[in-house]
Amino acid sequence: MSRVLVIGCGGVASVAIRKCCQADDVFTELCIASRTKSKCDALAKALEGKTKTVVTTAQVNADNVQEVVDLINSYKPDLVMNIALPYQDLVIMDACLICGVNYMDTANYEPEDTDDPEWRAIYEKRCKEKGFSAYFDYSWQWAYKEKFEKAGLTALLGCGFDPGVTQAYCAYAKKHEFDTIDTIDILDCNGGDHGYAFATNFNPEVNLREVSAPGSYIENGKWVEIPAMSIKREYDFDSVGMKDMYLLHHEELESLAVNIPEVKRIRFFMTFGQSYLTHMKCLENVGMLSTTPVMFEGHEIVPIKFLKELLPDPASLGPRTHGKTNIGCIFTGKKDGQDKTYYIYNVCDHQECYKEVESQAISYTTGVPAMCGALMLLTGKWTEKGVHTVEEFDPDPFLDALDKFGLPRRENFKPVLVD
Ligand code: NDP
User: What is the distance between the alpha carbons of residues 360 and 317, in angstroms, rounded to a whole number?
Assistant: First the structure.
């Protein structure tokens, strides 16, 4: 029996909400609140008669702490699931602290305005000190650790697939398969085809910022940064086949380096087709990925926001995307004094997802873990207070829930390694 407030009603939130409604014994009441209330109403209507969960809707601007506080105080949820955008993370965490409610999200904080001089000064200091230049990092949300601990509350960060399930895979490997882990390679393959020359599978602004940034990885406790897309490998993925993949910076590298400090090297690879990369490079070269406002015919516009309006809505890709995703982690290390390798991953089919929840697999593979993370918090399986990433919790009940709710694990004890 629980009341949950979901903030955001985009591609990922829609899947998470539909999945919560499948577990209506736990998610007994759910409020969908977002900037555009009509989207929440449409989803609530689509769920009518399909679930025992009592679904209500609300309008909220989650850039405003007081609006979120008022909503929490009026709905009185046991948990707030932030599935809006990373820009809202700190505002919603502040509101949860004020109201005394547990918090979770699917992506770590980054500011909407990367030209803000106050933020920029801190960012530039961090780039020098830590050695990676992505706009997002955990320092902003980790700064809330003590406040959440003292309030006796839990904040679960980054509970999608990657970040999220990939860290649970690491915790699982550490708990069951290895005495010590030497290397982790996280491989994110999307073998899906939506038929457009160019589209992004989740929020275009967040997605394009991420993939156009320099890549980085951890080696012997230090960040190594490389030009964007400059390390390329080929890998033969189960159920997908041979794909080109590129080394990217990714948020879970940062927390894994802290929480599994013995690991000598942690890398993240994502597959991209040539058409995607050519379009992205061209858009970047002409300035369309910029977040700095420009004047156009007397109006101020932010190029990347304008681009978002032109690109297909990721939520509309579901019916036309065919193929599979394959996301997981390859480990090397030692068990009982012997060298060992291990690969744990999930394969997800875009059309199967669409049949079940009217969404493609990228939103599905993020929304299902968000729902399963909420399930862990609401059923008392994960109880640590403070601010935590997924690898800090017991992976077993979470992976069991993923097996049950649509993202079953697969294992390979003799995987081909990435050189
Ligand atoms: P969408 O753009 O589809 O949806 C975002 C939603 O948030 C929309 O409903 C939007 O409202 C709402 N929103 C935006 N700003 C505000 C605001 N100020 N107040 C209230 N609501 C707001 O994004 P996605 O569903 O693709 O992504 C959701 C999150 O999931 C992102 O943080 C993304 O980074 C993360 N993600 C995580 C992954 C993982 O594996 N961990 C993978 C993919 C995504 P409106 O409809 O009005 O625009």
Answer: 6
8 Cα to the center of ligand 1, angstroms: 6
Euclidean distance between CA atoms 170 and 167, whole angstroms: 5
CA dist 235 and 416 (Å) reads 8
Residue pLDDT tens, the chain, 419 long: 899 999 999 999 999 999 999 999 999 999 999 999 999 999 999 999 999 999 999 999 999 999 999 999 999 999 999 999 999 999 999 999 999 999 999 999 999 888 899 999 999 999 998 889 988 999 999 999 999 999 999 999 999 999 999 999 999 999 999 999 999 999 999 999 999 989 998 888 888 888 888 999 999 999 999 999 999 999 999 999 999 999 999 999 999 999 999 999 999 999 998 889 999 999 999 999 998 899 999 999 999 999 999 999 888 898 999 999 999 999 999 999 999 999 999 999 999 999 999 999 999 999 999 999 999 999 999 999 999 999 999 999 999 999 999 999 999 999 999 99
To test the pocket of ligand 1, the residue of 60, 81, 106 to mutate (highest count of ligand atoms within 8 Å of its CB) is 106
The rounded Å distance from CA 16 to ligand 1 centre is 12
The count of other CB atoms within 10 Å of the CB of residue 380 is 7
